[in-house]
Design goal:
Helix content is 16%, strand content 35%. It contains 2 helices and 8 strands, in the order E-H-E-E-E-E-H-E-E-E. The strands form 2 sheets. The chain has a 4-stranded mixed beta sheet with strand order 1-4-3-2, with helices on one face. InterPro entries: Glyas_Bleomycin-R_OHBP_Dase, Glyas_Fos-R_dOase_dom, VOC_core.
Length: 130
């Protein structure tokens, strides 16, 4: 079996507020079914990301979402200029990715990153994989 991730849905308390946040990040809104649901398409036009309204006790703050960008430092500066606040500005990590971190309105951890070839081919990669 060959699986490919093409859709991710997270639970949020306020779909409309989350739409505004994710549009600031640059995602393209393709479905808006308020107050319950919204769906975006990511830059490569192959992956979709959606929001589903959850009750107050259902929204999870343990979700970590990674968005890859080819020009991390420039994109982070653009987002700072749009008023978004980052917990960590672009930093080179020991796993050879450059990452910046912020939270969405529901506290989901977002990591904007650039990994280049190291995303799929780090020096410690298992050689039998792929």
């Amino acid at each position: 079996m060959k699986l490919d991730l093409n859709q991710l849905t997270i639970q949020v308390r306020d779909v409309e507020a989350s739409i505004a946040f994710y549009q600031k990040l640059g995602l393209i809104l393709i479905v808006k079914s308020l107050p319950e649901y919204a769906r975006f398409v990511c830059h490569g036009r192959q992956t979709t990301f959606s929001l589903h309204r959850a009750g107050p006790s259902e929204a999870s703050k343990s979700t970590w979402i990674y968005f890859e960008t080819q020009d991390l430092d420039h994109d982070v500066q653009r987002l700072l200029d749009r008023g978004l606040e980052f917990e960590e500005l672009p930093t080179d990590q020991p796993w050879l990715w450059r990452e910046a971190r912020l939270k969405d309105p529901d506290g989901h951890q977002l990591i904007l990153y650039f990994a280049g070839n190291n995303r799929l081919h780090p020096p410690w990669r298992i050689h039998e994989a792929l």
